[in-house]
Design a protein that fits this description.
This protein is α+β, with helices and mostly antiparallel strands. The protein is built from 7 helices and 8 strands; from the N terminus they run E-E-E-E-E-H-E-E-E-H-H-H-H-H-H. The structure holds FE2/S2 (inorganic) cluster (2 copies). One FE2/S2 (inorganic) cluster (FES) binds next to loops.
């Protein structure tokens, strides 16, 4: 019989504890019977994580099992990255890791250490006043955003695509966003927006200073 209690009461604490107790009975042949009880404690410590997000460096005390999306949203307040399924199926949590689109619900925060994370907040750091990224502008112009839940992940997948392939076909766009589910738009307006964004970028390439 065993029992286990996990305690982590504050994000500012540097240590969380996991304590356990256990009892056991056993019978041995030839030497009689015996019983025993025991208690044990273990310590699961937060570790210091250095994370580069949208060009800024953060140092955080983080438990080793925390996912990247949890740290982005709950520790850094970057709630533009959404959580849908939490299992790698919907793409709502898509961010760029060294420029590649990943499901941040499947990435441990520590796996992102030493790499560059880009979230939707980093695509247009100045927000609307600073000017939206051309892909965001195209989504707005085409009505490719309805509830908006899929949009951050969809736009970052589109960014990865256009960085790889500045002039994709509609089929290539559909293939690249296949992992980003949208329950609202029927995808057609999203595909048209990405194709238009590609044309706009070719006509006026984005300078590094305009966004990652
Ligand atoms: S929340 Fe990560 S893929 Fe759905
Ligand atoms: S706009 Fe609602 S899920 Fe895509």
């Amino acid at each position: 019989m065993s029992g286990k209690t996990s305690v982590c009461t504050s994000t500012s604490e540097s240590i969380c504890t996991v304590a356990g107790t256990g009892m056991g009975t056993g019978t041995g042949t030839g030497t009689g019977t015996g019983t025993g009880t025991g208690t044990g404690t273990g310590v699961k410590a937060k570790r210091i994580l250095t994370l580069r997000v949208n060009g800024a460096t953060h140092q955080l005390a983080v438990l080793p099992h925390r996912t990247l999306v949890e740290v982005l949203r709950e520790e850094l307040g970057l709630t533009g990255t959404k959580v849908g399924c939490g299992e790698g199926d919907c793409g709502a949590c898509t961010v760029l890791l060294d420029g590649r689109a990943v499901n941040s619900c499947l990435v441990l925060a520590f796996q992102a250490e030493g790499r560059e994370v880009t979230t939707i907040e980093g695509l247009a750091p100045g927000g609307e006043e600073g000017g939206l990224h051309p892909i965001q502008q195209a989504f707005v112009a085409h009505g490719a955003i309805q509830c908006g839940f899929c949009s951050p992940g969809m736009i970052l997948s589109a960014k990865e695509l256009l960085d790889d392939n500045p002039a994709p076909t509609a089929e290539e766009v559909r293939a690249r966003i296949a992992g980003n589910l949208c329950r609202c738009t029927g995808y057609q307006k999203i595909v048209e927006a990405i194709l238009d964004a590609a044309k706009a970028r070719l006509a006026a390439p984005v300078k590094p200073a305009d966004g990652p």
